[in-house]
Amino acid sequence: MLRGGDLKEIYEMKGEGHSARAIARDLGLARNTVLKYLNSPEAMRLKPRRPRGSKLDPYTGHIDRRMGGLENCRVLLREIRTLGYDGCYATLTNYVQRRRRLCWFLGRIQREVWWPSVPAARALLSKEGIGNDSVPSEAGWLSG
Prior knowledge:
Blueprint: H1 4-15, H2 20-27, H3 31-39, H4 60-66, H5 73-82, H6 89-112, H7 118-127
Helix pairs in contact: 2-3
């Protein structure tokens, strides 16, 4: 995949009347690469990546249950290692940090009874990498 500047230069040179062979020679690219981008505008678009799983995925239920009364990730790492986890400490701490941030965020919303709109809340949560199932369909659950 070419960088945006190279693509722009390919199209500018083509607009100036240069041939694909001349463009390839001047930019140091293969002629077929230049032709691919000139003949197919879809080649420019980035395709969405498939979400990848994590080594931690089978253990997230256990981690979520233990996070309520446990502050130390090293203890948690020892526990899940006995269950078969062979990943690293950083993966665990990143997951725990994201979950704590989510809990803090949702707790803050409940304390302040601040909920601008359900779509806005979903947008905030999706920015954190959290699915839409974390947000209720109505904002009424916050009252009380």
